Model the fold of this input.
Amino acid sequence: MATSLASQKSKSTAKQCSKCHHRDDSDDSEEHSIPEGSQSDCADDGNYRTDNGDVELENDDDSPSQDSQVKDKIIEGLTKQKDSYLNDKKKVKKDYESTKVNLQKDIKAFFDAHEDESEAAHNAQLNRLAELLALKASIEAQMTTKLADLRAEYQIHSNELLAAVNSRIKDWK
Done:
């Protein structure tokens, strides 16, 4: 993992420092000498370029067991990341379901309360309507009685007036 794929494909053994472009044909990775007055600070950084320009890292620590350890660490990290993602997803789903259930309960409770209030208001209106209808019937009964009394009085007064008119007519004859 420490070396690039392009450098592994390269058949060239000549290497060049990636910063100061110092050529190194040897296999040892000891510090190369930098000419006086050079502004390179790359000595002992271990980075070299092959003849085709690919960067190759020189590390004495590279071994197959390290590669498998790195792969294992990467796999472990990806597994943890996936587990974390799945746990977060489950938590979001659980929170959503909980919120959905609570919201449905709240909406149901709100509509039940509204229905109870509207039913109470409707019953109050029906009771008031029944009272008003009873009052109307009572008033209509009183009006009927009063009308009958007025007719009777009118008839009596009419008869008295007719008798008075007839007696005057007799007197003139």
User: Anything to note?
Assistant: Residues 64-172 form the longest helix (109 residues).
